[in-house]
Write a structure and sequence with these properties.
Elements: H1 2-18, E1 24-30, E2 52-55, H2 57-60, E3 69-74, E4 77-86, E5 94-96, H3 98-104, E6 112-118
The structure holds 2-acetamido-2-deoxy-beta-D-glucopyranose.
Protein name: Barwin-like endoglucanase
Keywords: Signal
Signal peptide: 1-16
């Protein structure tokens, strides 16, 4: 029975390492575009009306995730946001535009708890 247990353990490890679309529960804060319209780390400027998301530097990975879509869910609603740059935040947290908060019907005055994952 030892061999059987090891095989199950191995299968679990493989499943965990290939599952890239794991949902993350984290805090979403409002992204406030700079007044001078300066571009974000992915090269484009972001406005309140863009459906854009900023992710933490470790997840951003030097730009590897630029342009990818992230689905964010809040209390039964969801929105697809494009990665536009980095936030100053921890791994599980994101910053979203006003358009994202509006679409999710979420209050933007304080961080809200959301689920998010790469598409
Ligand atoms: C991101 O989502 C938009 C809108 O749904 C879609 O048009 C676009 O092709 C997606 N981009 C990627 C890289 O999947």
């Amino acid at each position: 029975m030892r061999g059987f247990g090891s095989a199950l353990w191995l299968a679990g490890m493989v499943a965990a390492s290939t599952l890239r679309t794991t949902e993350t529960v984290g805090q979403a804060s409002l992204f406030i575009p700079p007044l001078n319209g300066a571009p974000q780390q992915c090269g484009s400027s972001v406005t309140d009306s863009d459906l854009a998301v900023m992710i933490s530097p470790d997840v951003f990975d030097g730009g590897a995730e630029c342009g990818k879509n992230v689905t964010v869910s809040f209390q039964g609603r969801s929105v697809v946001l494009q990665v536009a740059g980095e936030c100053v935040c921890i791994t599980s947290s994101i910053e979203m535009t006003m358009a994202a908060f509006t679409t999710l019907n979420a209050p933007f005055e304080r961080p809200v708890t959301v689920n998010w994952e790469f598409d």
